Amino acid sequence: MTRVQSKARIEHYYWIISDWAYLGSKRLNALAAKYRLEVDHYPVRLLDVYAKTGGIPLPDRSIERQTYRFEEMRRWRDRLNMPLVLEPTGFPPNDELASCLVYAHKSRGGDVGELSAGIMAALWAESRDISDPAVLSDICREHELDGDALLDLARDRSIIAELDQKTADAIGKGVFGSPFYIYRGHRFWGQDRLDFLEELAAKDG
Prior knowledge:
Blueprint: E1 9-14, H1 19-34, E2 38-43, H2 46-53, H3 63-80, H4 96-107, H5 112-124, H6 133-142, H7 147-154, H8 157-172, E3 180-183, E4 186-189, H9 194-204
Parallel strand pairs: 1-2
Antiparallel strand pairs: 1-3, 3-4
Helix pairs in contact: 1-5, 2-8, 4-5, 4-7, 4-8, 6-7
């Protein structure tokens, strides 16, 4: 009997409030569609990842690193021609409910990539407060989803536990930043590494 090999998948570990994950979101979804790859989107608690892997939260970084980040954000905003608010109002928002909303939608078999990209765009392109349940409900409606039902599910202990578990899984797989992509065992840190990921996907046909 001929054994059919399953198609490789992209594991996407990211912080839902990550500027770099936002900048990579549309290209990741487009890359996956181009090569007919499935993407497993896994929001994580990045501060927990940092605590285990030596990462430094943004407010604790030197002023030189913080100001350079703005330079890079402007460069990528222009390169990708994506709207980007450098300092969204109230940043950083609490990310738990938004992350759990993604897992809630995932548990129902929904298109997580589109919803996730929409949440990040609400923050980084529109400066909306994605810690606000009303804002998240509006984003769901914009994607023709039942926001109230998904938010109720997002608050369930099992969904919160999944966020915690995927954060632990990420650390176990060597993830230390956001966004982080794993494809066929190869790790890629940062949206600026998507070209390398695509090269590998193209070789696989």
